[in-house]
């Protein structure tokens, strides 16, 4: 009886504690939001002024001449904004962004222990991604392990599946794939997993895949920004950065892909404003994720060599090479890198007919300082370094329907296979 009384008062306490916890902020609604793609000619200043006037978010950096600006517009501003750009070429990418997000977010239930190809039919909750990796690992216990590159700011392990072939663990040069440094780029999570899954599950039956896995050690990191990814699932689907605060600002988040400690001080390729989507941080490598990943890459390179590093992003369909920090400095291996990139995009086209552009980051997309690729290429020293912007160039952008996961995985594997066959 006494025990029961103690138990029920403990229960009452626990209940009181949970009532005292402030409610989570509701998930941001994008119901009725529009996404407009505006062709920007000489009107850069005008479009930027509109973005400022209506306090809008853009998806692919600030509007600039000669490029399309993909602009997210809340329902209340939609007709005024549309009238302001009536003289320009405008496509409505999303008529109702909230509806597209709801569609994409109908995750199928993942039953632990069932790592099979149906995984790629939908997007998934972060905890299920970790379970999927554990399950995949336990299907191949003698040739794989789960590794972590350290912890995120909020203490989430930055997790990878590591697998190897007949030579055993840690002997062959490493191939390292990163996904989801930008939290909202969900297709990159799925595609990086697809590449790992394809190699592991076909090792026993495909002589070609066996030859790849016998030649290299693979480290597959589907989510290198777990705090940001969790935030896209709990609070705001369109979150990009990590979840770090900055003294003197109420804005949250450092862009991990502007924070790597190489050519970080070069101006013009990142923002010094903590509220910006491409905030570089207050100091190079002040994001714990950057520090952890950089140290892990250096150690891995020292232990076994680093053959290939690819950082997967979305969207725009680009296959890119160093550098981001300069449009004039070219990589020492530029000729070979461009030849490989050209072959990779041809392999993509041969899969489902999609066109990807290729070239150095700075001249292909825009100047970006402190990005992973420049650091890995020049400081860690990877034999080959690339970064990809996955699908699409159509209306979906970051909110790519789940029925495109498998085809995107297939074409991305074709590009990856091309590299594996042709790197010297
Ligand atoms: O701004 C970026 O970091 C990349 N574009 S994104 O829309 N995915 O954010 C472009 C920079 C090029 N670098 C890499 N893709 N790593
Ligand atoms: Zn990105």
TrEMBL record:
One of its GO terms (molecular function) is zinc ion binding. The active site is at 389 (proton donor/acceptor). Its cofactor is Zn(2+). Extracellular metalloprotease that contributes to pathogenicity. Belongs to the peptidase M14 family. Residues 122-423 form the Peptidase M14 domain. Keywords: Carboxypeptidase, Disulfide bond, Hydrolase, Metal-binding, Metalloprotease, Protease, Secreted, Signal, Virulence, Zinc, Zymogen. GO terms for biological process: proteolysis. The keyword Plastid does not apply. One of its GO terms (cellular component) is extracellular region. The keyword Ribonucleoprotein does not apply. This is Peptidase M14 domain-containing protein. Its main location: secreted. Residues 1-16 form the signal peptide. It is found in: Secreted. It holds the Pfam family Peptidase_M14. Coiled coil: none annotated. SUPFAM superfamilies: Protease propeptides/inhibitors (SSF54897), Zn-dependent exopeptidases (SSF53187). It comes from the Eukaryota.
